Structure formats: structure tokens, C-alpha cells
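Continuing the series of single-chain predictions for the mutant panel. This is the parent chain; the variants come on the following pages.
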Amino acid sequence: LIAIDLQVGRTGAITPVARLKPVKVGGVQLTNATLHNQDEISRKDLRVGDLVIVRRAGDVIPEVVSLVEPLPEIRNEPFRFPSFCPSCGSTLAREPEQAVWRCLAQWDCPEQRRQRLIHFASRKALDIDGLGEKIIDELLQHRLIQDPSDFYILRESDLLPLPRMGSKRVRQLLDAIEQSRQRPLSRLLFGLGVRHVGEEIARLLSQHFDSLARLRSLRWTDPDLELPEGIGIEITTSLQAFFDHPGHQRMLDRFEPWWTPSLQASEQESELSSLSDEQLRWLDDRLGAAVKQAAKIVITGSIDGLSREDLAAYLRIRSAQVLSSVSKNTDLLVVGHNAGSKLEKAQALGIPVLSLEGFPL
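Parent structure:
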């Protein structure tokens, strides 16, 4: 363990990261691994200079599991979690019964601002092709953007002076930004980065309240407000704080005219544009009856010729709720190759399983 660094996330969460001497795990060379939070570091008694065991959790996220024993007689001092944000210097806060320390500066924290802008442009949010971290860093450095709404007022004259931005690339980027106005309201809501509002919650909210203007007008903490199933006080409190925040008003004012009910229907169907008519008919034949009876569906494994995103979009347009994990409340598990632990859990709970092998290419 060479060092312990701190990363600031888009919601202000401070995550400790282990910097490691390069090591191969599962054929992949690792130099970083998550340490999760202060409590995990203390529980495992991790210190710089220690020899540690590393694994890829779920074969994806590297994490430090434990120390290698026996421990040396002389070790470095225990890691002390700082009291101030490493990006903006604000005092960190920790909510009762929560393990995570947070910076509460929001848009006033440079790294939170950066991470929020990156998230907004990401594939699962507004999916702005060509608007990656390096370009966002350049835009911030030249003070061309402050919040996501500034992407939509960029001009060729703003972008051409930037490094590696020729006229063709600038035109492509501006076209991609313009096309992103046509994304569904759920993508915008997810892209805004409201705490506790992930992809599925964003879809539930956008289906129930069909415009940004409607979302802004609600008193989310009103006990009489009719809400979709699964939307609790933690989410509504977060939404109220987001829409009340003075720093969000200019951004939301700019976005409001673009995300209206009149655009929504065609946008939902556009999410299936990558599937052929034959493939859609095959899915209808294989899944149609099951989807009508299953409100909550989980997907696991890989399906040749069908991305998880396209399958999830198909299910949602058919009014299913796509969840990320199996529980007793799951109605159906859709499986492909290498289904893994979700299949085992579904079988143990007696949840119906449906295979999509044979999907037409």
C-alpha cells in the first residue's frame, strides 16, 4: 500500500482510494483499489507501507480485503481522515448512522462541479458523444461552463481555440450537444445528479410527473403528495433541497422549455431505435406475456446481439420496472450467458426465470 488518496464524488462523498504497487488480479494490472470509507480503513487497520490482499469485487471493482500477516514490528502511523475537503477546503460532515464523510459545498466545490458535469454528459445520462473528461476540463479551465446548461450555449468561437479542437470536431460536438435536447426527461433528471435519484427512480418520477416544470412546482415534502411506489422521504427530501437550491434556478430555467410532455412519447420510442423490427417481434413473443404479469424485473448475464441497455429500454417501455438486484419483491429474472449469483438467488427465492438465448442477430 503506497498511499491513501481521497476522491470527491459528484454528491460530495469523500472516498479513500488505495494507491498500490502494480499487481495483476484476474489478468488485469491494478494500481488503485477502493477503501470504501473511514470505518473500513479503521476496521482493517490499514496503513501506508502495509502488504495487503486485493480482489476485484464482482470481477469489476478492485478493493483491499485485508492485511497480509504476520505484521511487521514497525508500521506507519494509522491513517487520519481529514476534517476538510481536499478540493475546496470546506468542513466535512457526516450524517448520523452514515459511514461516508461529505463535502457540502456542492457547486462551489471545484471537484464536485467537475464530476457533476462529467456525469451529466455520460452515456446513461444525456449521452453527449465527444464530451469527455478532457474537454470538460478544458472548458472549466477557460471558464466557458459553470453548470450543465452552459453546454447548450457554447459556440464554435468558444471551442476552436481549445487544444485538438479542429472545425470538424467542433461541429460534431455541437451537433451532439444539440441532439441531447431530445433525450427523455428521465435522462435529464438522472443527469442533474440529485442525490438518491438513480436511473430507475428518475424513470418512475418522469413517468408520474411528465415535465420539468411540474417537477419544479411540487412541494416534495407535502405528506399528501401522491407519489409512485418506492419513492420515500429520503428521496423527496433530497428533491426538495435540489429544486429549492438558489444555484440551480438559472440552469433549470434554461432546461424547462426543452423537457415537456409534447416531446416525451417520441423520445421513449427512440430508445429502441437500435433494434430491428424482427428483434422487437422476437422479444414480444418471448417476453410479452411475462412482462404483463411482472412489474419488477432484474436482468443478469450477457445476451449475444442485445445490450443490457436496449433490453432494459424495451422492458421499461412495456411498463416494467427494471431493478439492479434480486430480492423477494422481484417478479422475474431475465437471464443470458454467465448469469452468476443473481440466478442462484432467484432460484433460492422461487422467482421465475426466463432465458433469452437465441436472440436473432
